[in-house]
Amino acid sequence: MTLHSTVRDVTERIRTRSRTLRGAYLQEVAETRDRDRGSDRMGCANVAHAVAGIPANDKFRVVSERAPNIGIVTAYNDMLSAHAPYQGYPDIVKHEARRLGATAQVAGGVPAMCDGVTQGTPGMELSLFSRDVIAMGTAVALTHDMFDAALLLGVCDKIVPGLLIGALHFGHLPMVFVPAGPMPSGLSNSAKSKVREQAALGLVGRQGLLDAEMQAYHGQGTCTFYGTANSNQMLLEAMGLHVPGTAFIQPGDSMRDALTREAVRTVLGRAGEGTHAVPPIGELVDERVIVNAMAALLATGGSTNHLIHWVAVARAAGILIDWDDFSSLSDVVPLLTRVYPNGSADVNEFQAAGGPGFVIGELLDAGLMHEDVLSVRAGGIREFANIPSLVGAPTEPGSLKWQPAAPSKNDAVARPVSSPFSATGGLKLLSGNLGRSVIKISSVPEDRHVIEAPARVFDSQQALQKAFTAGELERDVVCVVRWQGPQANGMPELHKLTPPLSILQGKGFRVALVTDGRMSGASGKVPAAIHVSPEAAAGGPLAKVRDGDLIRLDGVAGTLTVLLPADEWAARENALLPDALRAANGRGLGRDLFAGMRRNATTAEEGACSWL
Fold it and tell me: CB of 549 within 8 A of CB of 478?
């Protein structure tokens, strides 16, 4: 299939924009890759320290037999449902590596925090920057520099981008990501949201709300809605960094053990018949692969967080992308899935309909993804249009087989390019005199794509909740919540605002949210212009907005504007961050430690990076 002209043009402008930076990156990768193996290159004391803790047979293999040594970087903890399954993975990996004449060591662990736990609490202000902490933790783990390849164990919101950023700083190594899968379906996402709205109205008490939440989040695995965690897995499949089709196999499925062992075979180039050289991750992740990830995100209406995270990921590989690139692709990449919050299905139903393999196959066939790219498999990205099944004992080679994911098994969940849910992607760039922002338009009802109403300005999400409880928002209103960007307070997600705004919309009021904070992959059905850049704390125009200003959010035209004469708007002074907020921001419960990150953070559109 001929590559679509827009995909080709966007890729070329990214390549041109990135030429100098990417060239320097690839030169560094090549120079690092050409060194001798770690145990040959390093001093005897260094090597002795590196292997002192492993069994004697493994020491012999690493040092004397010069066998491949796999570094494992794990986000395991048993605090979080998505990462608890990883507890036994290192033993599985080591067993399979030894069977293949190789070795494996847990190089290090990285933190994994959950926005579901910290939502609406001070801990949420550490969430975004935890990505960069994870990247640094990955670097610390791999900097022992004794590894010939690496496996990266992580799933959720900031964990995968952080692991990937860290991995790309060791771009000379072949690497494979190893997911753990989603939890089985519990209380439906729509039913859960209804109980939340009832609780916001005072119709359901704390015990009723807690019961509903625990029915929704009830076991090991990721949350079942299509938020940032599950969008991560879709993007890794589209980038060719998984064992094909492994993203949404549940933790308790017998196939999971086989897929984890297949990850070992894959990173060693031993998957399938014969052997093949797995490309270093820094060479694999080029501008075409980044564009493939962007297309997959848009085709599935994925998390808005990736308009921040994948900018940072690309930058780690010497590639420069921006929101205009996403916008151009969104104009031609159709929406192929309806998964909550873009529909009623959860990710388990998406997987049953064909999952990532179906979407990738459709995009490749339509020329909306690059097929001439590297992947961790010998068959290239086309292998990722397949879905796996178990045909033998999980511990045995050859226990897996793959077949095409197409056609869709449920047209209400996944549709072909020939009959999409929408002709354009799920995300939209908004620009105007309030700056640049994004909206997850795929989750918003069509009659709410354009909202024009007076502003009500808030300095925190708690202030908006208080106004809602007091009955002050029972009208058409655009709620502006500012001082929520990376430099102000770490750019927390503002999901506590979804129930009250949904209630107002349900009453027939025309409402919208405008903020320099985040709403992520769980963005609801209320129009929300998020990630407004530049943020208010950096002198952005949100600091000019006053109560009563008429704001127009136009998701069709792609504009976000205050409807005031240009000269009046230009002359208006910016409000300043209130003293009480300035004093409170970043203090207590560990937030003080992140002051340097807040101070150095780039804009949301530049990836909110603290390491540039």
Answer: no
